[in-house]
Hints:
Layout: H1 19-54, H2 64-86, H3 99-146, H4 163-207
Helix pairs in contact: 1-2, 1-3, 2-3, 2-4, 3-4
Amino acid sequence: MAYGEEVVAGYETCPTWAPILGFLAAGLCSTLANFGAAWGTWKSGLGLCSMGVNHPKGIVKNLVAIIMAGVLGIYGLIVSIIIAGGVTNPDNGANTYSQYTGWAHVCAGLCCGLSCLAAGGTIGLIGEMGVMATGFRAEINLAKASRPLPGQVGGGGADEDGGGGGGGAADDGGSGADENKLFVGMLIMLIFSEALALYGLIVALIVSQSQYKCGE
Protein backbone atom coordinates (compact mmCIF):
# COMPACT_ATOMS: atom_id res chain seq x y z
CA MET A 1 0.00 0.00 0.00
CA ALA A 2 1.45 3.37 -1.03
CA TYR A 3 2.21 6.19 1.43
CA GLY A 4 -0.76 8.41 2.08
CA GLU A 5 -3.29 6.00 0.59
CA GLU A 6 -6.53 5.67 2.47
CA VAL A 7 -6.82 2.53 4.57
CA VAL A 8 -9.96 0.59 3.69
CA ALA A 9 -11.17 -1.89 6.31
CA GLY A 10 -11.31 -5.41 4.96
CA TYR A 11 -9.34 -4.60 1.80
CA GLU A 12 -6.73 -7.32 2.37
CA THR A 13 -9.29 -9.78 3.72
CA CYS A 14 -11.72 -9.47 0.81
CA PRO A 15 -9.83 -8.66 -2.41
CA THR A 16 -11.66 -8.59 -5.70
CA TRP A 17 -9.88 -11.72 -6.94
CA ALA A 18 -10.97 -13.89 -3.98
CA PRO A 19 -13.93 -15.53 -5.81
CA ILE A 20 -11.40 -17.10 -8.19
CA LEU A 21 -10.37 -19.39 -5.34
CA GLY A 22 -13.91 -20.69 -4.86
CA PHE A 23 -14.59 -21.37 -8.52
CA LEU A 24 -11.15 -22.93 -8.96
CA ALA A 25 -11.74 -25.20 -5.97
CA ALA A 26 -15.10 -26.38 -7.32
CA GLY A 27 -13.61 -27.07 -10.75
CA LEU A 28 -10.58 -28.93 -9.42
CA CYS A 29 -12.65 -31.05 -7.06
CA SER A 30 -15.04 -32.22 -9.76
CA THR A 31 -12.29 -32.72 -12.36
CA LEU A 32 -9.97 -34.73 -10.11
CA ALA A 33 -12.82 -36.87 -8.76
CA ASN A 34 -14.08 -37.61 -12.28
CA PHE A 35 -10.55 -38.44 -13.37
CA GLY A 36 -10.28 -40.96 -10.53
CA ALA A 37 -13.67 -42.44 -11.43
CA ALA A 38 -12.68 -42.71 -15.10
CA TRP A 39 -9.33 -44.28 -14.19
CA GLY A 40 -10.94 -46.90 -11.98
CA THR A 41 -13.66 -47.67 -14.53
CA TRP A 42 -11.11 -47.95 -17.33
CA LYS A 43 -8.80 -50.40 -15.55
CA SER A 44 -11.61 -52.46 -14.03
CA GLY A 45 -13.43 -52.56 -17.37
CA LEU A 46 -10.37 -53.93 -19.12
CA GLY A 47 -10.10 -56.74 -16.59
CA LEU A 48 -13.82 -57.48 -16.79
CA CYS A 49 -13.79 -57.71 -20.61
CA SER A 50 -10.73 -59.97 -20.54
CA MET A 51 -12.33 -62.24 -17.97
CA GLY A 52 -15.70 -62.31 -19.73
CA VAL A 53 -14.29 -63.96 -22.85
CA ASN A 54 -13.78 -67.31 -21.15
CA HIS A 55 -15.99 -66.86 -18.06
CA PRO A 56 -19.12 -64.87 -19.07
CA LYS A 57 -21.11 -66.09 -16.06
CA GLY A 58 -18.95 -63.99 -13.73
CA ILE A 59 -19.48 -60.65 -15.47
CA VAL A 60 -22.42 -59.47 -13.36
CA LYS A 61 -20.82 -60.48 -10.07
CA ASN A 62 -17.57 -58.69 -10.87
CA LEU A 63 -19.23 -55.37 -11.78
CA VAL A 64 -18.69 -54.25 -8.18
CA ALA A 65 -15.32 -52.63 -8.99
CA ILE A 66 -16.82 -50.51 -11.79
CA ILE A 67 -19.71 -49.44 -9.55
CA MET A 68 -17.33 -48.39 -6.78
CA ALA A 69 -15.26 -46.39 -9.24
CA GLY A 70 -18.34 -44.58 -10.51
CA VAL A 71 -19.31 -43.49 -7.00
CA LEU A 72 -16.12 -41.42 -6.78
CA GLY A 73 -17.51 -38.94 -9.29
CA ILE A 74 -20.56 -38.44 -7.05
CA TYR A 75 -18.30 -37.51 -4.13
CA GLY A 76 -16.65 -34.81 -6.20
CA LEU A 77 -20.02 -33.57 -7.45
CA ILE A 78 -21.36 -33.17 -3.91
CA VAL A 79 -18.38 -31.16 -2.67
CA SER A 80 -18.26 -29.05 -5.84
CA ILE A 81 -21.91 -28.06 -5.43
CA ILE A 82 -21.32 -27.09 -1.79
CA ILE A 83 -18.26 -25.01 -2.68
CA ALA A 84 -19.95 -23.29 -5.62
CA GLY A 85 -22.94 -22.47 -3.44
CA GLY A 86 -20.64 -20.82 -0.90
CA VAL A 87 -19.26 -18.30 -3.41
CA THR A 88 -21.30 -15.17 -2.64
CA ASN A 89 -22.23 -12.49 -5.16
CA PRO A 90 -20.84 -8.93 -4.93
CA ASP A 91 -23.00 -6.43 -3.04
CA ASN A 92 -23.26 -2.95 -4.63
CA GLY A 93 -19.97 -3.48 -6.43
CA ALA A 94 -18.15 -4.61 -3.28
CA ASN A 95 -16.79 -8.11 -2.89
CA THR A 96 -18.39 -10.22 -0.16
CA TYR A 97 -16.26 -13.36 -0.59
CA SER A 98 -13.18 -13.41 1.64
CA GLN A 99 -9.75 -14.94 1.19
CA TYR A 100 -10.34 -17.02 4.29
CA THR A 101 -13.38 -18.70 2.75
CA GLY A 102 -11.63 -19.06 -0.59
CA TRP A 103 -8.61 -20.89 0.79
CA ALA A 104 -10.88 -23.09 2.92
CA HIS A 105 -12.75 -24.05 -0.24
CA VAL A 106 -9.49 -24.74 -2.08
CA CYS A 107 -8.42 -27.04 0.74
CA ALA A 108 -11.77 -28.84 0.70
CA GLY A 109 -11.77 -29.24 -3.08
CA LEU A 110 -8.23 -30.60 -3.24
CA CYS A 111 -8.82 -32.90 -0.27
CA CYS A 112 -11.83 -34.54 -1.88
CA GLY A 113 -10.50 -34.47 -5.45
CA LEU A 114 -7.07 -35.93 -4.73
CA SER A 115 -8.54 -38.55 -2.38
CA CYS A 116 -10.94 -39.68 -5.12
CA LEU A 117 -8.08 -39.71 -7.62
CA ALA A 118 -5.97 -41.96 -5.37
CA ALA A 119 -8.94 -44.21 -4.63
CA GLY A 120 -9.78 -44.47 -8.33
CA GLY A 121 -6.29 -45.63 -9.22
CA THR A 122 -6.31 -48.18 -6.41
CA ILE A 123 -9.76 -49.50 -7.33
CA GLY A 124 -8.75 -49.74 -10.98
CA LEU A 125 -5.62 -51.78 -10.34
CA ILE A 126 -7.24 -54.06 -7.77
CA GLY A 127 -10.34 -54.46 -9.92
CA GLU A 128 -8.38 -55.33 -13.05
CA MET A 129 -6.10 -57.91 -11.48
CA GLY A 130 -8.74 -59.26 -9.09
CA VAL A 131 -11.36 -59.80 -11.80
CA MET A 132 -8.85 -61.48 -14.11
CA ALA A 133 -7.65 -63.71 -11.27
CA THR A 134 -11.22 -64.69 -10.47
CA GLY A 135 -11.76 -65.61 -14.12
CA PHE A 136 -8.58 -67.69 -14.21
CA ARG A 137 -9.68 -69.47 -11.05
CA ALA A 138 -13.02 -70.29 -12.68
CA GLU A 139 -11.25 -71.68 -15.76
CA ILE A 140 -9.09 -73.91 -13.57
CA ASN A 141 -12.19 -75.12 -11.72
CA LEU A 142 -13.87 -75.94 -15.02
CA ALA A 143 -10.81 -77.83 -16.22
CA LYS A 144 -10.73 -79.85 -13.00
CA ALA A 145 -14.43 -80.63 -13.24
CA SER A 146 -14.16 -81.90 -16.82
CA ARG A 147 -11.06 -84.02 -16.12
CA PRO A 148 -11.90 -87.77 -15.83
CA LEU A 149 -11.38 -89.30 -12.43
CA PRO A 150 -9.29 -92.47 -11.92
CA GLY A 151 -11.29 -95.55 -12.82
CA GLN A 152 -13.61 -93.68 -15.17
CA VAL A 153 -13.71 -93.80 -18.95
CA GLY A 154 -14.86 -90.16 -19.40
CA GLY A 155 -15.44 -87.04 -17.36
CA GLY A 156 -19.20 -87.68 -17.07
CA GLY A 157 -18.99 -91.38 -16.19
CA ALA A 158 -19.43 -92.83 -12.74
CA ASP A 159 -18.95 -96.18 -11.03
CA GLU A 160 -21.93 -98.40 -10.40
CA ASP A 161 -21.86 -97.71 -6.68
CA GLY A 162 -21.78 -93.92 -7.28
CA GLY A 163 -18.40 -93.45 -5.60
CA GLY A 164 -16.72 -91.84 -8.58
CA GLY A 165 -19.51 -89.31 -9.05
CA GLY A 166 -19.33 -88.35 -5.41
CA GLY A 167 -15.61 -87.65 -5.66
CA GLY A 168 -16.11 -85.30 -8.62
CA ALA A 169 -18.79 -83.35 -6.78
CA ALA A 170 -16.58 -82.92 -3.75
CA ASP A 171 -13.78 -81.62 -5.94
CA ASP A 172 -16.14 -79.11 -7.58
CA GLY A 173 -17.31 -77.89 -4.21
CA GLY A 174 -13.76 -77.29 -3.02
CA SER A 175 -12.83 -75.47 -6.21
CA GLY A 176 -15.93 -73.28 -6.00
CA ALA A 177 -15.04 -72.37 -2.42
CA ASP A 178 -11.58 -71.28 -3.56
CA GLU A 179 -13.12 -69.03 -6.18
CA ASN A 180 -15.45 -67.45 -3.61
CA LYS A 181 -12.56 -66.83 -1.23
CA LEU A 182 -10.67 -65.04 -3.98
CA PHE A 183 -13.69 -62.87 -4.76
CA VAL A 184 -14.23 -62.00 -1.08
CA GLY A 185 -10.58 -60.99 -0.73
CA MET A 186 -10.86 -58.72 -3.76
CA LEU A 187 -14.09 -57.23 -2.40
CA ILE A 188 -12.47 -56.37 0.94
CA MET A 189 -9.58 -54.63 -0.82
CA LEU A 190 -12.03 -52.64 -2.93
CA ILE A 191 -14.00 -51.56 0.14
CA PHE A 192 -10.92 -50.21 1.89
CA SER A 193 -9.84 -48.48 -1.32
CA GLU A 194 -13.23 -46.78 -1.52
CA ALA A 195 -12.81 -45.71 2.11
CA LEU A 196 -9.88 -43.49 1.07
CA ALA A 197 -12.26 -41.31 -0.94
CA LEU A 198 -14.82 -41.36 1.87
CA TYR A 199 -12.24 -40.00 4.31
CA GLY A 200 -11.44 -37.16 1.93
CA LEU A 201 -15.16 -36.44 1.48
CA ILE A 202 -15.75 -36.18 5.24
CA VAL A 203 -12.82 -33.80 5.77
CA ALA A 204 -13.83 -31.72 2.74
CA LEU A 205 -17.38 -31.31 4.08
CA ILE A 206 -16.04 -30.14 7.45
CA VAL A 207 -13.47 -27.73 6.04
CA SER A 208 -15.91 -26.24 3.52
CA GLN A 209 -18.04 -24.94 6.42
CA SER A 210 -15.24 -22.59 7.55
CA GLN A 211 -16.41 -19.22 6.26
CA TYR A 212 -15.81 -15.54 6.90
CA LYS A 213 -18.19 -13.05 5.31
CA CYS A 214 -16.84 -9.65 4.42
CA GLY A 215 -18.22 -6.83 6.48
CA GLU A 216 -18.70 -8.83 9.65
